[in-house]
Amino acid sequence: xxxxxxxxxxxxxxxxxxxxxxxxxxxxxxxxxxxxxxxxxxxxxxxxxxxxxxxxxxxxxxxxxxxxxxxxxxxxxxxxxxxxxxxxxxxxxxxxxxxxxxxxxxxxxxxxxxxxxxxxxxxxxxxxxxxxxxxxxxxxxxxxxxxxxxxxxxxxxxxxxxxxxxxxxxxxxxxxxxxxxxxxxxxxxxxxxxxxxxxxxxxxxxxxxxxxxxxxxxxxxxxxxxxxxxxxxxxxxxxxxxxxxxxxxxxxxxxxxxxxxxxxxxxxxxxxxxxxxxxxxxxxxxxxxxxxxxxxxxxxxxxxxxxxxxxxxxxxxxxxxxxxxxxxxxxxxxxxxxxxxxxxxxxxxxxxxxxxxxxxxxxxxxxxxxxxxxxxxxxxxxxxxxxxxxxxxxxxxxxxxxxxx
Length: 405
Ligand code: NAI
What we know:
Blueprint: E1 6-8, E2 11-13, E3 17-23, H1 29-48, E4 53-58, H2 62-69, H3 75-84, E5 86-89, H4 103-110, E6 115-121, E7 137-143, E8 153-154, H5 159-172, E9 182-183, H6 189-205, E10 210-215, H7 221-239, E11 243-245, E12 258-264, H8 265-274, E13 281-284, H9 286-299, E14 307-312, E15 315-320, H10 337-349, H11 353-368, E16 371-372, H12 374-377, E17 384-385, H13 388-400
């Protein structure tokens, strides 16, 4: 029997032994992956009472791929992820040098991973820079392909740059300063509607209270302003009776509806600090979403614990959100929490939610008991600092124990 995920009428079918490609990543990636894989296998075994299993399949990207194949993102890797529909990856070195793209951005574009989803929730025991971190429970839906982040840029001094400059002068009557770099910011109706629909579907499925559209439309009217307009229009058109506006939320006949509201991005950065309990699902264009997700991660203990997933049509890649941490690579110091929680998202995605919950419980319980990696030591009172391997061993012990029965 095939061990491959398949789709029938849009429904995902997952065999009991499922092949999932992994990219272990560069720098701390291999240690992080080894620790996480051991926890994943223990969680699946326990949750399924031995009836389910992941056959992990290594695929290459970034530095490891370049060393072995001469390519930063081999075609084989892209094909394997398409074929198996789901993958997990560690952090990847961004190649340095003109004309070489970030492998993460290349993966996103090659596989059309249009949504980046980052849940942000505090784990009890982790010290946070805010007074009430337990009030933070948000999920950021970031459009992943458009905006100024799409990589359409022209360096100062190039022929293309001169042509763009001339075109701008012709269209606007303005002459821009010499030696200016240019990048194109574009936001489409289709892209905005797609991310809003994902956010709405998630909010409905998980009974969330509100969806907040984050934008800077007061200044960038035809990009971020249109994003806001198109998101509201979609909510009204496709989810009419299920949603209401913030101004209607107190009316008795609106009880139980999902409140669709919007905030200007700069205000939103204040809101998540001052009024976190008022926010739930957030939907953002690419650049603001990038900033906001990392700021939110910091509010609940940093990137070492922040999971993420990138979603396209029938394909998803889950990823540790931190970088390759070259300063601690090879020293058994890395906190695998981000990859562990990304794995939990992956298991939720394929319908193995019991395994996902076990991973989350094991992580929460281990941290609550004060067993942490060095990066969290200063955060957790009375912490017992352990290396990556022993941290994973503590999680596995919890998973195998009666405590989680
Ligand atoms: P970084 O996240 O690798 O490191 C920043 C600091 O945080 C370092 O002091 C590091 O030791 C620490 N740190 C990060 N993750 C940690 C963890 N899980 N446990 C304990 N400590 C941790 O960011 P940096 O130095 O800016 O980037 C290094 C490389 O990683 C660059 O090539 C960058 O492009 C790449 N990168 C890749 C990402 C990805 O593949 N998703 C994301 C961010 C950066």
